[in-house]
């Protein structure tokens, strides 16, 4: 009888130890999941927001300098303009450059959409730029992107579209399974690039 009580005590202590070890293992797994799924993505987002804030601050400084320079030039202007005014060569170059910059903006955006930086895991089949449409304060340029890849690669590409630093609106998105390989997807993304007018 005494032996049975000793055996029950030993088994009871072992059960307690197993429960403690199981509880600690579950706690460690939960901690790893928390760090992996919640902490790291938030840290990445915070870092991206800091970079965006720095870029915005640089743009604000540049605009402020431009405003100050414009005020200085306006203060130097005479009250009455002379009748024989010619276009300043600098102004002429700026106007010509604006047309070139507009084309460069479209081309650089199309290059980014097909570039290795965001399209490293997908195969970009075609980037097609449509006819631009003039609005009051901006110009709309439709851009169609056709690509092929696995689901996760397509997802990563679409996430990267958010961070290209351009005003790009996704209008339409179609997704079809590739006929040749069941793990591959064919995707068409219709976007609109918004370019503000100077």
3D architecture notes:
The protein is an alpha+beta fold. The chain folds into two domains: 1-80; 90-198, Alpha-Beta Plaits (2-Layer Sandwich). The chain contains three helices and five strands, in the order H-H-E-E-E-H-E-E. The protein has helices at residues 2-76, 89-114, 151-161, and strands at 123-129, 133-134, 138-149, 168-177, 185-196. Strands 1, 2, 3, 4 and 5 form a five-stranded antiparallel sheet that branches. A hairpin with a 7-residue loop joins strand 4 (168-177) and strand 5. It is elongated, with a radius of gyration of 30 Å. The model has no long low-confidence stretch (mean pLDDT 78).
Write the SSE topology:
Layout: H1 2-76, H2 89-114, E1 123-129, E2 133-134, E3 138-149, H3 151-161, E4 168-177, E5 185-196
Antiparallel strand pairs: 1-3, 2-3, 3-5, 4-5
Concise description?
By secondary structure, the protein is α+β, with helices and mostly antiparallel strands. It has helices at 2-76, 89-114, 151-161, and strands spanning 123-129, 133-134, 138-149, 168-177, 185-196. The protein folds into two domains: 1-80; 90-198, Alpha-Beta Plaits, CATH 3.30.70.60.
